[in-house]
Design goal:
The protein is α/β, with parallel strands linked by helices. It has helices spanning 19-29, 67-70, 86-97, 118-124, 149-156, 176-199, 209-215, 218-225, 261-270, 285-290, 292-303, 308-318, 328-332, 335-340, and strands spanning 10-14, 33-38, 52-56, 62-66, 77-80, 101-104, 129-134, 204-208, 244-249, 252-257, 322-324, 343-344, 351-352. Strands 5-2-1-6-7-8 form a six-stranded parallel sheet, sandwiched between helices. Strands 9-10-11 form a three-stranded antiparallel sheet, covered by helices on one side. Strands 3-4 form a two-stranded antiparallel ribbon.
């Protein structure tokens, strides 16, 4: 199998928590050499537990680190840097002189007083791609304000779209905007590297949690921008598709997702409601959206009479998208996930790989998250071309 796609790429990560480290981990999984630069006490998420993982260090001691840290730091090496120590700063600048990419998530302007801002570093290394992740971006009226995922979920509109109509707004169960920002960061870094091959120059990348959170509102934003409506939460229903929601079975719940009229007709046949697809109020998706208050109770009465397993089997046989509502343990033990090899255990520490498969190239999943400060202040000998 061919080498990892980003083998030879050199990355310095000056980031903590999740969005920035997610960029670094994804690049490491793709083969980049990522040096994580941490404060002497380490990334905050090393202490965000329980649960905690204990493992031996090279010096014979034991390191106790939260599972959270292992979620976003696989494949990196770690060095510690005291920004108040001129010698440490000199070592860091020398490391960045040899780097292709810097990822940082300090507050706007926070690195300038240490000579670690883009203008200073790019003067020494003109090809440097420098990705900055902040809550609100490098400019605008909120640029200097701090921003965490939960705060940004509220500001982005997604919490008003999530939860029961008569309940309080709900956040997504993971740091969803941090993850999206990290993924957009990976896209931006690779695009800037591709452009560098033409221009020979790096550039500054400006990523905002709020920008990313609003940008992925997708159809809900379009419902407002083009339709003039202000969408609000519908529980597990879909604003533009019916039926596309959670339904009760006799022993639990399942999801039914009819994306077209053919699937709706098949659903009705399975549920013993063969006349519904011919009814003008239900014959098309726009009609079903307009009359969902009548349609959904009829479907609910029919699904409630059968078990979840029976319904899912019947729907799969009829070509109707249907599935269970799994907890995390059930999701991780889903036969399809096991067959795809999503679970990995580098150095014996369980984790989930970056969900990409290449036809020829391999991914770099052989190293766990690093012990604090056990890396070196230099890169390998094979830089990216």
């Amino acid at each position: 199998m061919a080498e990892a796609p980003l083998k030879g790429l050199r990355v310095v990560e000056l980031a903590r928590i999740l969005a920035g480290p997610w960029i670094g981990q994804t690049l490491a999984d793709l083969g980049a050499e990522v040096v994580k630069v941490e404060a002497p006490e380490g990334d905050d998420t090393r202490r965000w537990g329980p649960p905690f993982i204990e493992r031996p260090r090279a010096d014979g001691t034991t390191e106790r680190v939260a599972a959270y840290f292992h979620a976003a730091n696989r494949g990196k090496t770690s060095v510690t840097c005291d920004f108040n120590d001129p010698a440490d700063l000199d070592r860091l600048r020398a490391l960045i002189d040899d780097a292709d990419v810097v990822v940082e998530n300090f507050k706007v302007g926070g690195l300038a007083r240490f000579g670690l801002d883009y203008d200073t570093l790019s003067a020494r290394n003109p090809g440097l791609v420098y990705a900055s992740i902040t809550g609100f971006g490098q400019d605008g009226p909120r640029a200097t304000q701090p921003g965490y995922d939960f705060l940004i979920q509220g500001m982005s509109g997604i919490m008003d779209l999530t939860g029961a109509p008569d309940g309080e707004p709900q956040k997504v169960g993971v740091a969803w905007i941090d993850i999206f920002t990290g993924l957009y960061g990976v896209i931006a870094v690779q695009a800037a590297l591709a452009e560098r091959q033409r221009s020979g120059r790096g550039q500054h990348l400006d990523l905002s949690l709020l920008d990313c959170g609003v940008a992925v509102l997708a159809n809900q934003a379009m419902n407002h921008l083009l339709g003039g409506m202000v969408p609000h939460r519908l529980g597990n229903a879909h604003p533009n598709i019916v039926p596309y929601q959670l339904f009760p079975a006799s022993d639990g719940h399942l999801i039914l997702a009819c994306g077209n009229d053919r699937q709706f007709a098949a659903l009705c046949r399975v549920l013993g409601l063969p006349d519904l697809p011919a009814d003008p109020d239900f014959a098309t998706n726009p009609a079903r959206v307009a009359h969902r208050d009548r349609l959904v109770p009829m479907l609910t009465a029919a699904t409630s009479r059968r078990t979840r397993a029976e319904l899912i089997a019947l729907m799969e046989g009829a070509g109707v998208p249907a599935g269970p509502v799994n907890d995390v343990a059930e999701a991780l033990s889903e036969p399809q996930i096991l067959a795809r090899g999503l679970q990995i255990a580098p150095e014996g520490i369980a984790g989930l790989r970056t969900p990409i498969r290449f036809g020829r190239s391999r991914m770099a999943h052989d190293r766990a998250a690093p012990a604090l400060g056990e890396g070196g202040w230099s890169f390998g000998k094979d830089p990216a071309p």
